[in-house]
């Protein structure tokens, strides 16, 4: 009995270490990518000048539509591949994992071609009356040809708990994308004084350039590690015989729910995109240009920044799926319960301070990225969106948890309930709250979905709420302290009487450093970091001379 308990404890500790290590790689790649994806806005804003809000709204609308088509093209296959690869690896059937990847490539290439053609040829049908969207959607269609194969390969590496190739390729992809965006925007808008719609179209074509570079990085990693994969295949049990037809069936059965759940936030954004202007026209006599500006503020500007913090949750979600799948394959409910508890704690550990911190510096941060354009309203929307990001991040994690334990249909059902709630409250909230209405409606819809999923997980496997609550108190107190410190720095900075980018950047940086140091200090001092991340933080405590 004791030996068995020790084995279970070792498995749980090992899973926690894998989760932390995997999350570290995915978080680093995701954060750096998101930061790059946000920083480009500063020069992009300057070069577009008076066309910036219109250009950003066009860019955001195009990307919302593209994101939905991209998720359909990827078809949930990367996450499904990661889950199934982890499943067969846990059974020491590495040969089947390799075959699974090759069959997935066929699906990825076919869906990429079909969906890319659908977006390119059907672009006029998806514009909602805005003809400027047509060239933008045409340029985005090229990316859909490449990204499914790239994403599938990332899923294959993740199934082997190899997160570094995914993280590094993600960073390279974003670096190439941003470089192409800035070069073309500078040439078209600043040097040639050209058409802003053409400049936006080139900026969206950058998605294809970035995807190609990311795929090349993954190809190099695969080539370097081919002997390692061959060795695993050679040592497989080879006790299972899985026909090609069954492999295709498994991929599709796992992938379809991933489409819906992976598109969850995008679906909510598309609801906002197609309903906001019609509802606002009923609420008052507003021009299309003004409503486009409002949409840019809540649907694009704030969204770009909060996605930096949400990426923390996304990185954790990607890591959790294969780990949970392995535990589920072994039928170890105790291990599943422990991983669920750890996943929620890690989510709180990174998401709560990040969201509160961004809310505290919303005003100077908004000025750094977007200048003085509707500064007051933009800052308020960013602050509110920062709080909302906790729910968006929680959704990415809990939906991944359900997928990891093969509760896909149930998760889709719960998301459908949340979507219906979003539709019901959308009209009155937008009518009376304007630009804040879609955000509140999204929060309510996702809250319902998250509650239903968490309740289901608790009923099936048991979530250690006592442990979570005890550690949450410490996380919340430290996060509030971080918020307070950052707010004091922002208030002192406002006494300087300047709203320029340089002063705002300085204030934001000081607030982030002081607030962030306080949070890290409190987590290390209280030993909460050890309980959540593991003993590896002891070295950091020694370097910071914290007892």
UniProtKB/TrEMBL annotation:
Q: Tell me the domain of life.
A: Bacteria
Q: How does it sit in the membrane?
A: Multi-pass membrane protein
- Identify the keywords attached in UniProt to this record, alphabetized: Cell membrane, Membrane, Transmembrane, Transmembrane helix
Question: Where does this protein reside within or beyond the cell?
Answer: Cell membrane
Q: Which InterPro entries match?
A: PG_synth_SpoVB (IPR024923), Poly_Biosynth_Transport (IPR050833), Polysacc_synth (IPR002797)
Q: Where are the transmembrane segments?
A: 35-53, 65-83, 104-127, 133-153, 174-192, 204-223, 251-271, 305-328, 340-361, 381-402, 411-429, 435-454, 475-496, 502-520
Write the protein's name.
Oligosaccharide flippase family protein
Q: State the organism named in the record.
A: Levilactobacillus fuyuanensis
Read off the lineage from the record. Bacteria, Bacillati, Bacillota, Bacilli, Lactobacillales
